[in-house]
Amino acid sequence: MYLRSTKRTNKDGSVVKYLQLAHNERHPETGSPVAKIIYNFGREDQVDKEALRRLMQSIARVLSPEEHAAVQMGVDIGSVSIKTDKALGGVWVLEQLWEKLGIRAALERLLADRQFSTPVERASFAMVANRALAPMSKLAIEDWVENDVAITDLPEVQVHQLYRAMDFLIAHGTEVQESVFFSTANLLNLEVDLLYFDTTSTYFEVEPDPDDEEELRRLGHSKDHRPDLLQVVIGLAVTREGIPVRCWVWPGNTSDMEVIAEVKNDLTGWKLGRVITVVDRGFSSAENLRHLQRAGGHYIAGERMRAGMNSVEQALSRQGRYKAIRDNMEIKEIVVGDGEARARYVLVRNPVVAERERQLRERALEELREELKRLKPCEGEQHSKAVCELMASRRYGKYLKLGSDGIPRIDQAKVKQEARLDGKYLVKTSDDTLSAEDVALGYKQLLEVEDAFRSLKSTLELRPIYHRLADRIRAHILICWMALLLVRVAETRVGDTWRKIRAQLERIRIVEIETPDGRVVQRTEISPAQRGILTSLDIPEPKRIHEIALKTKPGA
What we know:
This protein is α+β, with helices and mostly antiparallel strands. 40% of the residues lie in helices and 22% in strands. The chain has helices at residues 49-60, 65-73, 89-100, 103-111, 120-133, 138-147, 159-171, 173-188, 260-268, 286-292, 310-317, 351-373, 385-392, 412-419, 436-444, 447-457, 470-494, 498-505, 528-536; strands spanning 2-9, 15-26, 33-43, 81-87, 194-203, 231-239, 244-251, 276-279, 298-302, 323-326, 329-336, 343-349, 400-402, 408-410, 424-429, 509-515, 518-523, 545-550. The mean pLDDT is 83.
């Protein structure tokens, strides 16, 4: 049944149109469809359109919303199907950065003389993109690549191909990192005069196999507070912009003091010129600082203020005024000693933190006085359990001394010593060309490394690590480092967190639609927020139509 329009031409040449409700019936003799008029609405220019609208609404009541919309668009809803729907925006941006940073070119250069049936470069990118977008196991990446995302020239991948790519990456890890670093430095015009270095640890939630000789997975000092689990130690060198330029992996029982020489030697091999390495207090032994000064290098290093070193004590006791350089940041430059024994320090103070630490100490002392009132004199040389617990307490023990009667008392000298450190940290440098302000701000930016570690462990989900073999563990961490590099570049240029950037990009989809006339592969429309991200990264929009395949009609 349909609305039929007919027309009649008058003698004066004017045309009059008529509307009729009709349906087709087959002629009993010829078999051809013939229109049968059910109702005449009259002339089109005189028809009651409000009556037609009411009729249309009454018919629509028996249709589903989808059928109603399809009728309005003139589409046969049963003839259109969406075959696939995949995420496009995230992998598109990561792939463009992969190209811009020269990672693809570096891998293809290393692969030039090798004959692989495995698409090593594409498989490597798939693992890096997965780590940045939807971290999962290597086995799960098979399904992710095939059904969830649209990666250029990689419709599918098998897990053995991913492992083959990992083996290649770890075999050429040093060359890959060096090549990527210089490509990144040139593209982003990175300032590499300051390099920040720190370490972290990551653990394995698996039991050790007594038949395996563990090369990397060892028990050690856990920065995740899990000393009961096997772990590895990871080192990162980061620029002042927060871009990770190199990573290292060591056995889990490696101490911070053992790694500086290797780090310095590796970075010296890159011939970066004048580099000032910024390290935390855990790396500031005299031997490590000497290593950092080799080949014309310099350091900015945190100092342990409670270590009792003579030079540190002199620096802390030196009189002088603080200079305010930023909100809640004051500095005082101090030079201790002469000649070869000369040491340059910058004492940094935060008045807000100083006041908070003073209040916390006063509260702790009030609680301590109440605890001391409840203690009973000990008998003989045996200390009561309460006394032992109090002296060993991390909160109260630093303020106590043990009297001749075996009763602990508050040591005012210790209280004064702690008060002297409120809101302060001490930085030492070997470079006299840096201003005191640059030294203080340079050390403060060491937080960039800590932020990178947080991204590795949370956003990129470094854990859990499912691998047991040492080379596979190293390859997994190298993949995480490359993902962190892409993520940090995106964050730096867009000026937002990766979580928010990723959420916007993942809404750019690519769908495959099939109709009786053929098939089309098309992306969704780009929103203003998504276009802003692409513009900030200087990345073009993915093309709107990816493929059109028209069906040939019979007899055409």
